C-alpha cells in the first residue's frame, strides 16, 4: 500500500522549491506575494479587453523574483487505490472521447492553454442539460488528491446542485503539494481564462452571478485566491464545505482517517479490503519523520489564519457560508470562526450529518460506461454490475443545503433530519 508514503516522497521533492514562499510575520503578506498587471490580456481570437471578474493577471513571486514553478514537483497520482482507480477510468474515458465515444458524464473539457504554451490548462465544464443559458456560474475546487479528478470524484454532487440551480460549473483540477500559494495561483488563472472563454465562445452574460465553492483543501485554496485578488467583491457567495487548514503533520492524521474511511463498508470497490498493512504504525512513523525535517505548507495554518483575519471583511463574511459535518475530525471550521471572535460579522454555518467525504459519491453502472473502459471498471468494482462509494442520503441533504444557501435561505441544522428519518424507518419495521 503506497497510500501515504507516495504522498510523503512527492511532497518532500518539492520542499526546497517552496521554501522561498514563506514570509516573516512582519512582512505585508499578500502584497509581497501577488502582483497585478495593469494591462489586459488577449484570450482566444477575440482580442477584446477584459476588466471584469478575475481578468487582471495574477502572479505569485518568490523572494528572489522567480515565478512559482509548477514543474518543480513531478506529477503523481497519489492517495492510494481509489485515486489509481480514478486515474485509470479517466484515462480510458479520454481514449473513448478521442475515438468519438461518450463524454465523461455530462462534462466538457476546456483546454485554455495559450498559443505559445505546450502544457494543457484543463478546466472541466458542466453546463445545463437543457442547453439554456445558465442562471449562475460555480467555481469548484475539490479536496486534496480527489480534487485532481473533480469531474469523477464530485460529479454526482456537482450535477445535482447544478440541476437544482440551472448552473454551470467550472471545476478546476490540481495536483497537491506543499505550495498551496502556487496551487491557488494556477487555479485563479484557470478560473479567469475559463470565464473569458465562456463569455466569448459560449455567450455567457458577464453579469451572471458567480459562486466559489470548495471542499476541504479546496476551500483553503479559494480563500487564498479571494484574499489575493479581491474577487470576493464580485462573487455572489463563497461556500466552504469541510474547510481544512491543517498543518502538514496534522495531515498525516487526515490521511489515516481517509484511508480507514475508504476501507470501511466499501468492499464492492475493493479499496484496501483485506489489507494486512499496519496503518497505524506506518502513519506514526511518517509523523515522526515529518516532525524531524520540519516540513510545512505555504501558507502555514497560522499564516492562513492571518490572511483570513486581514482580508475577509464584513461584506465578504456576509456572503460566506460554512458547511460542517457531524462526524468530521478533519474540519477546521472552528478555527475559521475563531479568526473573527469579537467581531460583529461572522460567516453563516450549516450543520449536516455525514463525514469529511460526504461530497464524494461515486456510482458506476457498467452498462453506461464506454466499451473501452469496461474492463478497467470491472476490475475496479470487483466484477459487480453496479457499484457505489459514499452516503447518498447525506449527500442529498448537502445538495439541498447548498442550493438553499445559493437561493438566499438561512442555514439549517440538518443533523436531526437524518435521525428523524432513521427513527421513522425503525418504527415502521417494528410495526
Low-confidence stretches: 1-78, 265-277, 422-429
Count of DSSP E strands?
12
Kindly provide the radius of gyration, computed on alpha-carbon positions and rounded to a whole number of angstroms.
Answer: 21 Å
Which structural category do the helix and sheet elements fall into?
alpha/beta
Please state the average pLDDT score: 73
Sheet with most strands: strand arrangement: 3-4-6-5-7-8-9-10
User: Could you state the order of secondary-structure elements as H and E?
Assistant: HHEEHEEEHHEHEHEHHHHEHEEHEHH
Count up the helices.
15
Helix content: 40-55%
How would you describe this protein?
This protein has 431 residues and is an alpha/beta fold. It is built from 15 helices and 12 strands. The chain has helices at 5-18, 29-33, 81-98, 150-153, 155-165, 180-202, 217-229, 248-263, 279-293, 301-311, 314-319, 333-338, 371-380, 392-406, 415-430, and strands spanning 34-36, 58-60, 107-111, 122-126, 136-141, 167-171, 210-215, 237-241, 320-327, 348-355, 362-365, 386-389. The longest helix has 23 residues, at 180-202. Residues 1-78, 265-277 and 422-429 have low confidence and may be disordered.
Amino acid at each position: 500500500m503506497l497510500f501515504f508514503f507516495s504522498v510523503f516522497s512527492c511532497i518532500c521533492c518539492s520542499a526546497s522549491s517552496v521554501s522561498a514562499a514563506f514570509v516573516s510575520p512582519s512582512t505585508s503578506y499578500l502584497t509581497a506575494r501577488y502582483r497585478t498587471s495593469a494591462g489586459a490580456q488577449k484570450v482566444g481570437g477575440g482580442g477584446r479587453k477584459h476588466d471584469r471578474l478575475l481578468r487582471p493577471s495574477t502572479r505569485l513571486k518568490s523572494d528572489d523574483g522567480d515565478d512559482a514553478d509548477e514543474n518543480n514537483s513531478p506529477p503523481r497520482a497519489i492517495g492510494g487505490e481509489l485515486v489509481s482507480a480514478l486515474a485509470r477510468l479517466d484515462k480510458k474515458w479520454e481514449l473513448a472521447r478521442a475515438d468519438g465515444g461518450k463524454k465523461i458524464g455530462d462534462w466538457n473539457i476546456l483546454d485554455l492553454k495559450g498559443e505559445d504554451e505546450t502544457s494543457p490548462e484543463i478546466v472541466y465544464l458542466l453546463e445545463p442539460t437543457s442547453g439554456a443559458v445558465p442562471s449562475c456560474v460555480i467555481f469548484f475546487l475539490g479536496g486534496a488528491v480527489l480534487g485532481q479528478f473533480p469531474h469523477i470524484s464530485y460529479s454526482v454532487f456537482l450535477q445535482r446542485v447544478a440541476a437544482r440551480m440551472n448552473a454551470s460549473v467550472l471545476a478546476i483540477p490540481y495536483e497537491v503539494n506543499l505550495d498551496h500559494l502556487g496551487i491557488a495561483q494556477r487555479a485563479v488563472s484557470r478560473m479567469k481564462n475559463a470565464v473569458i472563454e465562456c463569455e466569448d465562445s459560449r455567450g455567457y452574460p458577464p453579469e451572471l452571478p458567480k459562486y466559489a465553492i470548495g471542499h476541504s483543501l479546496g476551500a483553503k485554496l479559494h480563500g487564498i485566491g479571494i484574499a489575493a485578488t479581491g474577487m470576493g467583491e464580485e462573487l455572489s457567495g463563497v461556500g466552504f464545505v469541510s474547510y481544512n487548514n491543517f498543518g502538514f503533520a496534522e495531515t498525516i492524521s487526515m490521511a489515516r482517517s481517509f484511508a480507514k474511511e475508504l476501507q470501511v463498508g466499501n468492499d464492492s470497490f475493493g479499496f484496501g479490503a483485506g489489507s494486512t498493512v499496519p496503518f497505524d504504525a506506518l502513519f506514526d512513523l511518517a509523523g515522526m519523520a515529518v516532525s524531524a525535517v520540519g516540513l510545512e505548507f505555504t501558507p502555514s495554518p497560522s499564516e492562513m489564519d492571518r490572511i483570513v483575519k486581514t482580508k475577509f471583511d464584513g461584506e465578504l463574511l456576509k456572503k460566506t457560508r460554512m458547511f460542517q459535518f457531524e462526524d468530521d475530525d478533519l474540519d477546521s471550521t472552528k478555527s475559521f470562526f475563531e479568526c473573527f471572535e469579537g467581531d460583529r460579522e461572522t460567516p453563516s454555518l450549516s450543520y449536516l450529518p455525514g463525514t469529511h467525504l460526504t461530497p464524494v459519491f461515486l456510482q458506476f453502472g457498467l452498462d453506461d460506461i464506454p466499451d473501452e473502459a469496461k474492463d478497467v471498471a470491472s476490475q475496479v468494482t470487483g466484477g459487480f454490475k453496479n457499484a457505489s462509494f459514499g452516503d447518498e442520503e447525506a449527500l442529498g441533504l448537502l445538495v439541498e443545503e447548498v442550493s438553499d444557501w445559493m437561493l438566499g435561505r438561512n442555514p439549517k441544522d440538518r443533523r436531526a433530519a437524518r435521525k428523524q428519518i432513521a427513527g421513522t424507518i425503525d418504527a415502521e419495521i417494528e410495526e
